[in-house]
Specification:
Layout: H1 3-10, H2 14-22, E1 30-32, E2 35-37, H3 41-54, H4 59-65, H5 69-102, H6 112-124
Antiparallel strand pairs: 1-2
């Protein structure tokens, strides 16, 4: 398929596809009369790239992710730890906002229930 068709199927601009090729994140496609021609698997590879980006992987980390298992394990373990911390942070933010909606205190920091919640957070996640 052409780069235009691949772009249409995946929702990724052709410029991004060419960028990923230049940086080795996508294999170089074969060319027919100078035009790139992609196999059907290219759409799957792009889906993986997009999911990696959405998970917060940098382009360097995505390139590492595509290496053999032994080379990528350390990066994957570090990324899982980072994502787990982000999940805790998001949960705390959700708790804060949900409480703020219900709280009758003018200043939420003065709210005893909120102060108790903050104390619990500090037990779970020490200051970074």
């Amino acid at each position: 398929m052409t780069i235009g068709r691949l772009s249409e199927i995946t929702g990724v601009p052709a410029s991004a596809i060419r960028y990923w090729e230049r940086h080795g994140l996508l294999p170089a496609p074969e060319r027919v009369s100078g035009q790139r021609r992609y196999p059907p698997e290219a759409a799957e590879r792009i889906t993986v790239l997009r999911k990696c980006q959405q998970a917060g992987l940098t382009l360097v980390e995505i390139a590492e992710f595509q290496q053999e298992q032994s080379r990528r394990e350390a990066m994957i373990r570090a990324k899982i730890t980072e994502i787990e911390q982000r999940m805790v942070d998001l949960d705390h933010a959700h708790q804060l906002l949900a409480h703020a909606l219900k709280c009758s205190e003018e200043d939420i920091v003065r709210c005893p229930k909120f102060r108790e919640q903050m104390a619990d957070w500090q037990k779970v996640t020490p200051a970074r």
